[in-house]
Design brief:
Layout lengths: L2 E7 L15 H14 L10 E11 L8 E11 L3 E10 L2 E13 L10 H7 L1
Antiparallel strand pairs: 1-3, 2-5, 3-4, 4-5
Length: 124
C-alpha cells in the first residue's frame, strides 16, 4: 500500500534535558502523522472514526534536538473494523524507531463499526 510521509522538525519541547527526544513524544508525533494521513477523509453519519486500540514501539537510534525527520506511515493489514499500521521514524536515511499500531473504527455509539468502503478507497 501507499506510504504516507510526514516531515517533522524536533523542537526543544520534544526533548529531555540531554537534548534527546523523550520516549512519549514519539506517540504524539506519530498521532500527528496519522492525522495528516486521514486529512480530508469524511466520516459518515457522525462516526467518531479511528481510535488507537494498541501499539508497540521499538527504539533503535535516538532522535535529537533540531533533527529533521520523516514519519513514514504504511497500512500493513486491513480487517473489517480495524487496520494495522507501521510508522517508521527516519532521520538521514536511518530508521530510528518503528511503531506498530492497530486502529479501530467506531461509530457515534462508541461501538466497533465496519470500515466504510469510501474510506478504504480514499486511503488507497
Amino acid at each position: 500500500m501507499k506510504i504516507y510521509k510526514f516531515p517533522f522538525s524536533i523542537a526543544y519541547s520534544d526533548t529531555d534535558a540531554g537534548g534527546i527526544v523523550y520516549h512519549g513524544r514519539y506517540i504524539e508525533i506519530a498521532e500527528r502523522a496519522r492525522m495528516e494521513m486521514l486529512r480530508g477523509i469524511v466520516f459518515a453519519d457522525n462516526d467518531i472514526g479511528f481510535v488507537v486500540r494498541g501499539l508497540n514501539i521499538k527504539y533503535m537510534s535516538p532522535l535529537k534536538l533540531a533533527d529533521d525527520i520523516v514519519v513514514e506511515t504504511e497500512i500493513t493489514n486491513v480487517g473489517a473494523v480495524s487496520m494495522d499500521l507501521q510508522q517508521k521514524f527516519v532521520h538521514d536515511g536511518v530508521i530510528c524507531a518503528i511503531m506498530n499500531i492497530t486502529i479501530a473504527y467506531i461509530g457515534s455509539d462508541m461501538r466497533l463499526k465496519r470500515i466504510p468502503d469510501s474510506i478504504m478507497a480514499e486511503l488507497n
